[in-house]
Every structure is written in structure tokens, then in C-alpha cells.
Write a structure and sequence with these properties.
The chain is built from 7 helices and 13 strands. Bound molecules: zinc ion. The site of zinc ion has 8 residues, from helix 4.
Amino acid sequence: MLRLDGRVDVGVVGSGGVYAETREVSALLDWTREVLAPYGFTPDLSLPLVSVCRDELMFAFIDTVTSHWGHCFDLSSLAGLPLLGRTGLAAALGHAPDAGGRHRLVVLAFPHIGVDGDGRMGMVHRRGVPGVTTACGAVHIARQALVYGVSGVVLDPHDVEESLLVQRLRRVLGDGVVPDLPQVTEIVRRSAVEEMRLLLSGLATPELPVDFALFSGIVVHAGETDRVTLDSADVTVDGRQIDLLARARPDSS
Ligand SMILES: [Zn+2]
């Protein structure tokens, strides 16, 4: 977990300390600009890409990214798993500013989870909706499918994103016990990072250099404002990956 030099409000949300270290989304985005500036990433010279769930709850997060980095290319699918593939990412690259031949992408992969007033994971109050609803509903349904033994092999053409989410989780979990919702959400985060890293690694050519930053964590809807964990942060410049988390830790500086 990241400590941002004690400069931001770090608070505990949820029960059992699952999300023991969270921060305001704006504080995270301030930090991304700060740590990326030395590598030439500025809003004018970079294109932000967001991989978040389609849920309307995520628009506050997207708005904050936009206010810090400009309008975002949308990688979204249910649960925040990036399913746009090489074709979609190639399109995004074509929209990135050309800075003397270099292109810079800032990728943010952030699945989400709700925590209601009683500390229940995966539940959230929505304005105008009686009671509580699930968040992330897509992860909740995929988890239930795995509990009931759905193989994930069959791709439903009328439920493509959820089918691929179940398939991905099944590939990670195999026949083992299905973990709880926060743990499944964490698998979604790792899967999103893995997929984006695979796609991004094949993007640059000698004629078209591409530098990219990749941040990931979990957006936690708890109360009026969202909070966010930061679980990975790195930047790849000229093909060399630099861990930004290690640099940010006070005890490693
Ligand atoms: Zn969702």
C-alpha cells in the first residue's frame, strides 16, 4: 500500500480493515501528475485511458481524471475489465498527442466496490433507489456464477462482457473455492493490469515510440464521496519499466 508522504487524508473504510488505506480520488490524481511530470507526462502531451466499470457511480471518478488529465479514452466494460483489445488500443494511440514523435498514455485501471453504512461489502445506497444495491453488480453476479459451477467456457453473444468476466475469473480460480467479493474484485484488478500490460507492451515501434503509465487500485464507494486504494503504479519509458510506488514510499526514499 502506498503512503503519499502523509500529505493526504488516509482513512479506513469497510469492515475488517480490508480497505485500510484509502485516499480521496483527487489526491490520487494530484499525485499521478506530480510523479509523472519528470518523465514528460503532462496533460497537454498525454492521453488518459480509463478502465472502470460502466456503473454510473464511476462517473465521479472519470470526472476527476478528466479534470486532471483531460478527456479520457474509455476502455470500460462491466466490472472494469478492459475488453477493447488490440484494435481498441490502437485507436486510442491514434488519438494521443504527438510530442516530437513520442506518444504518452496514462492508463488507470480501477474496479470498484460499495460499502454501505453498516460496513457491508459490495452494497451501496443509490439516490432514489430503495434499500441497497450491489456494487460491483457485475462482479457479484460473476462470483455467484462461479459458486454455482458455471464453467465460463460458453460465450453468450447476448451477454459478452459478463461471459468474458466469468471466463477470466474461472481461469484464475480454477476449480478452487470462490473467495469473497473483495478478493474477487482484487482478481479483477490484477486481470485488468495484466491485460493492459500485454496490450501496451506490443504498441511501440522504433518509428512510433510510446511511453505509458499504468495505475491501478480499487474505488470504494463509502458514504458521500468515493475513496480509492492505490495498488500499483509504474511508468514505462523507452521500454524500461519504473516502479513509482517504490519511489514514493517514505522509507525507501
Ligand atoms: Zn460495477
